[in-house]
Amino acid sequence: MTVEALNPPGIVPLDHILPDEPLLMMGAGPVPLPQRVAAANSIVINHLGETMNRVIEQVKTMARYVFQTRSGHVLGVAGPGSAAMEMAVCNLIGRGTPVLSVVNGYFSRRLAEMATRVGGEVSVVAIDGNRCATPEEIARHLAGGRYEVLTIVQGETSNTVCNKRLQEIARIARAHGCLVVVDAVCTLSTMPLDMDGWQIDAVITGGQKGLSSIPGVSLLAFSDLAWERICARSDVPAHWCLDARLADQFWNQKSYHYTAPVSGILALHEALRLVCEETLTARFLRHRHCSEALQAAIEAMGLDLFVSADSRLNSVIGIRVPEGVSADAVRTHMSGVHRVEISGAFGHNILRIGQMGEQSRAHNLFRTLHAFGSSMRSCGAVLDLPGGMAELERHLSESTRSRAARVAEAAAL
Ligand SMILES: *Cc1c(COP(=O)(O)O)cnc(C)c1O
User: Fold this and answer.
1) For 127-146, what is each residue's pLDDT tens digit?
2) 13 lies in a domain?
3) CA–CA gap between residue 286 and residue 272 (Å, rounded)
4) Which residues are modified to N6-(pyridoxal phosphate)lysine (predicted)?
5) Tens digits of residue pLDDT in 22-42
6) CA dist 344 to 169, 273, 374, Å?
7) Are 170 and 201 within one domain?
8) Is the same domain home to 283 and 273?
9) CATH number assigned to the domain comprising residue 395
10) Where residue 1 falls among pLDDT bands split at 50, 70, 90?
């Protein structure tokens, strides 16, 4: 065989594969990138040295604001949100660690699965019926065992349930001597989360959701208490790349662990900078107003939301697919005709529209709602498209008028 025998014929450049016009990404992630973030992602610099040190210092300082923590243990990881989940899990949980995992859906079950794989003795509290966990039921479970770690998700992207009583649950877990690990991949910077104030011991996030950065570079923060536990461990975590004490060498000691994903970290820097510039106060309000406007508009069209208001996540909206309509056909029509992409779901007959980062902009909402309603109708649904559009218009113009006043008010508190 010659060297060239495996040189493949028929490979085309990317622009032959990608659509002429990029799709508007309105699903459950990845989300559209601000121009600054995309530009930063195209740069390569040395992963060590003075320039990188300054970038890392700023990333950590901005991350502390976004996580709402003064902890010195902010770390990054080259990997998806799941790698940050695994990093939190494998550093805090080992063979025989008793763990209570609150499972609302697919992603919180992934945390329980990871805890089991590293040898934890995991008890699962399955929260059925697409609703949020209550402090009362978690307190009951905590009282029934001696757990060292509790894992929970803030926003369960898979079924669009939000654990709205996270703060109370974290307080109860801490009172039982449990460290609290929170997956905030889809929610961070879209809704309040106060790591120090709520006494959370590990907060996990990814790039491509709330932060509107690229997928593949993620952040997490450990509390001092969590860090003590990590340092007191007599064995080492099984995953060398995810070892927090080794990662600390790069993130806090200016030395080498592995070659950091420099372009992705530059992108994350810009994404965090845009959050700081907007302020969390204004960003939370923007997300809430956009999501609530879209929810009201979808209901005004005559469609049903999947989760009841008391458990509903704002960062990703789940919509029931009407009888006789194919969810896949709706998505295909939306991306083919309108160039807007949304998500299907994991085992539920719902469609999901994201409201994370750049997705929560009025112009994206109008385009998405129109594409969604029009595609639903083409696929056989009976609905009031103009009624929905009018409701969106009404909500957004109201909230834009009052938003400036509310931002000023909230900032003064
Ligand atoms: C998307 C998501 C994850 C997984 O993130 P990846 O980057 O796909 O690994 C975990 N948890 C939640 C809540 C998510 O929304």
Assistant:
1) 999 999 999 999 999 999 99
2) no
3) 16
4) 209
5) 999 999 999 999 999 999 999
6) 30, 31, 17
7) yes
8) no
9) 3.90.1150.10
10) confident
User: CA 217 to CA 37: how far, in whole Å?
Assistant: 13
Q: Tokens 């929970």 sit at which residue?
A: 152
Confidence of residue 407 (pLDDT cuts 50, 70, 90): low
Inside any domain, residue 355: yes
Q: Give residue 413 CA to ligand 1 midpoint distance, Å.
A: 33
Helix/strand/coil percentages in the chain, nearest 5: 45, 15, 40
The pTM (predicted TM-score) of the whole model is 0.95
DSSP H helices, 118-213, are: 135-143, 166-175
Q: Compute the average pLDDT of residues 179-187.
A: 98
Ligand 1 mutation pick, 132, 158, 166, 185, max ligand atoms within 8 A of CB: 185
- Rounded distance from Cα 186 to ligand 1 centre (Å): 7
Of ligand 1's atoms, which has the minimum distance to the CA of residue 207?
7
18 falls within a domain? no
pLDDT of residue 346: 78
Give distance in angstroms: CA of 68 to centre of ligand 1: 21
Work out which ligand 1 atom sits closest to the CA atom of 157.
15
81 & 183 share domain: yes
Q: Which residue has a Cα nearest atom 3 of ligand 1?
A: 81
Annotated binding-site residue? 283: no
Q: What is the Cα–Cα distance from 218 to 273, expressed in whole angstroms?
A: 16
Tell how far the Cα of 37 is from the centroid of ligand 1, in angstroms. 20
What single DSSP character describes residue 330? H
Residue 186: inside a domain, yes or no? yes
Domain span holding position 164: 35-277
Number of domains in the chain: 2
